[in-house]
Design goal:
Shape: elongated
Number of helices: 2
Strand order of the largest sheet: 1-4-5-6
């Protein structure tokens, strides 16, 4: 873990009033973000609310995962930000992209752009 952030944001909260009357409100409550460097996934962020029912969100980056797998396989590539700009062995590289992360499955309509904007 390399960073922990705390902040306040609105969240749905059930308020118990008189006679056990339940009211849904959206007050500002504490939220925490845990930033982790994982060997396989790269930068992972886990966000959690500090108030019951403690909703959580895990944020992964598919490009970081694929880059890590390519590094392990010894496939050369360059990236600018989150975009792959050059790949030494494209067919070998493609073997490390799980089917769930291909542009057609991620809602990109089969786009073959080097830096799709569909969350890869």
């Amino acid at each position: 873990m390399f960073l922990v952030l705390a902040g306040r944001a609105q969240a749905p909260v059930w308020h118990v009033g008189a006679n056990y009357n339940l009211e849904k409100k959206k007050p500002y409550v504490n939220h925490y973000s845990f930033h982790i460097l994982d060997r396989d996934w790269g930068h992972v962020t886990i966000k959690i609310s500090g108030h019951p029912p403690f909703p959580a969100q895990v944020i992964l980056n598919g490009h970081e995962y694929v880059a890590g797998q390519a590094r392990k396989a010894g496939i050369g590539f360059t990236k600018e930000g989150n975009c792959f700009t050059a790949i030494a062995d494209t067919s070998g590289f493609a073997k490390h992209v799980p089917a769930k992360l291909t542009p057609a499955k991620a809602g990109g309509g089969g786009s073959q752009r080097p830096c799709p904007s569909n969350g890869l």
